[in-house]
Amino acid sequence: MSPEKEKQNEINILDTLVILARHKMFIIKLVFTITLISLIISLVWPHTYRSTSTFLPVSPQRSLPGGLSGLLGGSIQSPMSFPQVNPEVFITILNSRELREALIHEFNFQEIYNTDLMEELLLKLDEDVEIEEQREGGFGFNPIYSIKLSFYSNEPELSYEVNRYILSSLDRKIREINHENSMEFLQILETRYQRNLETLEASEDSLQAFQERYGILEVEEQARQIVRQLADLKAGSIETEMHIAVLRQSVSDENVELRNLIRTREEYDRQFRNLMDQSDQQTADITGFYPLRDMPELGIAYFRLFRDVEIQAEVLKTIYPQYESQKMIVEANQRGIQIIDQPVIPTYKDSPKRAFIVLGGMFFSIFLALTIVFFREMLEQGRKNNSENYRKLQELFEHLKIRRANKAGSSDES
Q1: How far apart are CA 48 and CA 289, in angstroms?
Q2: Inter-residue contact 166 to 91 (CB < 8 Å)
Q3: What are the φ/ψ torsions at residue 57 (nearest 5 degrees)?
Q4: Residues in CB range of 148: below 8 A, 6 or more apart
Q5: How many Å apart are CA 177 and CA 173, to the nearest integer?
Q6: In 129-155, where does DSSP find H-type helix?
Q7: Residue 31 in contact with residue 366, Cβ under 8 Å?
Q8: Residue 77: DSSP 8-state
């Protein structure tokens, strides 16, 4: 830095100090006065108390409450998911008009806020309620994992009671929503369960009617027995044919033994044809057997009926445990919120912050005093030197005075 600039800076600093020293009493009086006023304001300002609580949004349970699943040996499955109350809904309920109006009527805020206008009451109530959302870290939209609720009031007990009332109302509302959702899902399960019972009963009746009509208990086993009988008859016929062929080489056709063998073979063949062609219902009811040509059709009909019974039985195994589990969930009085920090009656005021008010007033008074002092000095220097800026200020003041005079004249004429 050049010697000239150093000298100029030194002169400016000295000039500033001289100005401050010249107006020191004014500065001290102004700072003292404003600081004293700030102190008086901080003492007169009504105390405000804050009651705070912290809670976690609780989603509806999808497992059996109270360890009922363990008591039942784990045989009852958990129900499928049903609509859950999103944590974002908790904020919506806290800001709902229904809850705020109920709060106003419950604690008679008309007298506290000195107004009967509902819109004004809602605005003032919003100023006293503070809701802080605690969200999970990360990028994008992050879900809420806890909510901090605070209420400000001039009375410690009132702030505590209002906080408790809000928590109770929120918990009750969430319970109602959860109960409605679980009831809707229970009705769906119950309707499906009843339909399954009706379908299963109809399938069982159809299978029973089929078995009673055809006398069939197991198509495959009975078909196997028919084939075994046919094989025995065919084997007997072939064996008899062999004996006949051997005997004919040594005896005549009139031989008694040969004729008996021929009659035996014919009987084997006749029974074989009858068993193959048997279709008479009376015979079927008596013997319980059907011809093989009918077995595929009967087998398919029996399989379809048996399959329907098995499918509906498996569906029943799935639906019934969920139905019973959902009934237990509906009957259980599940909580809507989990309170981490209970509200308490505040013992220390939250505001006003006297130290901040006094320090703020003192710094403002210093800034104001310095501004006034340097502005006065600027006017004084401009008056002595008759500078252009001073002349412009004088002209401005003159114009302001003229406007005031015109306004006064117009008011007199009116």
Answers
A1: 96
A2: no
A3: -65, 130
A4: 52, 53, 54, 130, 131, 132, 134
A5: 6
A6: none
A7: yes
A8: P
Provide the CB-side half-sphere exposure for 74 (13 A, CA). 0
Of 264, 322, 301, nearest to 76 (Cα)?
322
Q: How far apart, in Å, are the Cα atoms of 328 and each of 78, 175, 388?
A: 11, 15, 91
CA distance 301 to 332: 47
Phi, psi of 73 (to 5 degrees): 75, 20
- Taking the C-alpha atoms of residue 223 and residue 361, their distance in angstroms, rounded to an integer, is 107
Distance CA 241, CA 243 (A): 5
pLDDT tens digits, 277-329: 653 433 344 344 454 455 567 667 776 777 787 878 888 888 888 888 878 87
Q: How many other CB atoms are there within 10 angstroms of residue 132's CB atom?
A: 11
Residues 6+ apart with CB under 8 A from 107: 158, 161, 162, 165
Paired tokens of 335:
């909580």
Please measure the distance between the N-terminal and C-terminal CA atoms of the chain and give it in whole angstroms.
66
Give residue 261's pLDDT band: very low, low, confident or very high (50, 70, 90). confident
Phi and psi torsions of 49, nearest 5°? -115, 150
Residues 6+ apart with CB under 8 A from 48: 152, 153, 154, 349, 350, 351, 352
What pLDDT, in 10s, does the model give residues 63-81? Answer: 444 444 444 444 444 444 4
Alpha carbon 139 to its chain centroid, in Å, reads 21
Bridge partners of 146?
A: 134
Longest pairwise C-alpha distance within the chain? 173
CA 369 to chain centre: 59
Which of left, alpha, beta for 74 (phi over 0: left; psi -120 to 50: alpha)? left
Residues 6+ apart with CB under 8 A from 272: 230, 233, 234, 237
Q: Which distant-in-sequence residues (6+ apart) come within 8 Å of 22 by Cβ? A: none
User: How many CA atoms lie within 13 Å of 15's alpha carbon, on the beta-carbon side?
Assistant: 10
Say if residue 73 is exposed, middle or buried (CB neighbours under 10 Å; 0-12, 13-18, 19+).
exposed
Strand partners for 52: 150
Q: Global pTM?
A: 0.55
